[in-house]
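Re: beginner question about structure tokens

> Can someone show what the tokenized structure looks like for a real chain? I only ever see the sequence side.

Sure, here's an example I had lying around. Input first:
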Amino acid sequence: MEPTIEEMREVLPGYYNVRFGEPEYTDWIDESKSWKEACYIGDWSFLWQRWFRGPDALKLFSDISVNSFSKFDIGQSKHVIHCNKDGMVIHEGILSRFGEEEFLLFGRGCFWADYKLRHGNYNATSQEDDWFVYQVSGPKSVAVMEKAMGDSIRDVGFMRFKKIKLAGKEIYALRQGMAGEIGFELQGPRELGPEIYAAILAAGEEFGIRRMGARVASINHLEACFPTIVMDYLPAMFEPDMTEYREEFEAAMPGFAQTVKVGGSFDGTKPSDYYRSPVELGWTKNIKFDHDFIGREALEKEVANPKRTIRTLVWNEEDVLDVHASLYRDEDPYPFMDMPRDQRRMMGADKVLKDGKVVGVSTSRGYSYHFREMISLCVIDTDMSEVGTEVVVVWGAPGGPQKEIRAQVAPAPYKPDNRRASLSSLS
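And the corresponding structure tokens:
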């Protein structure tokens, strides 16, 4: 049964972010500086992993993904996006090609790909795995990696991976960079994880490495504009034709991975009001029409005539301070702005107005210590998306105290994207 908006707004006790380890290791301000000044190590081992093998494995991904696979080398990874028939994102993740007929998928898309494999006619197999996944990212990440390895890693291209030896163990290093900086994702069997983690920390000590805590873990996604499921959109799987899949999916989810909690001033009336297309999330470049895939017809129309796009909003400092000040006044305060961002695992969706008309939805509100600003992502009407446009964000849930906060449209990503920087000249 499709959940009601009332059920989606009900926040359960203990419904907080526990995925990334401790809330803080030094403190969140110190940790937030790491990916600009030095580097961090973060643990994303909670991501699901599944192998897909066989002659039709690539055809499966072509059928269910917006991406083109006309060129997909062994040793290459792709950000793959899966949509429903209406072109709305169900899941996305990272697909790596290990052999001619061997692929490893990271992320929630494992469930959708496995489901479509079992309900289709594909000569392929699917097998769950359990790997550690550590991100090492920031301007000093190359130096840290090379000290830990005792070897160069500068020959790894962006979204390419190779086998490396670290702490005497053979693992894989994918050059990625979810913080918008040079970075590597270290992957391998979970039992090797503790040794690899300790080796990276030891090598990184002289370079100022920090451990990434849960409080600040998603601020880099906000600054670098990496929209995240549950935080920035709900998976497009709450229609009647998705009931069987949704029941399978939700039965497999641990408590931390709930998918239908929302908050904020945006007053949607049905789950699909919180869906987003890859065009709206800034992923148009991933969409290729050189193959048939689920959602192609809808996305062809949207790519030709996009109605909304993604931007950053910079919130007015005086209005933000007034929200905090309301806690000290003899009145019902505005909802608390958790710092650096909301720690509850939910989609905080706030409506964005221009001259009283709803023109967008703001998500992932967070404080960037680097920029000393409160910012958010925003899916906004294209005719309101010009950088510098003045808008208003409504802060506070329907029926409670609300504050209109002035905001200005800014680029997304807000922080310059340094992921593809050349490694050859780094010291």
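Each token stands for a local structural state, so reading them left to right follows the chain. The chain has a mean pLDDT of 94.
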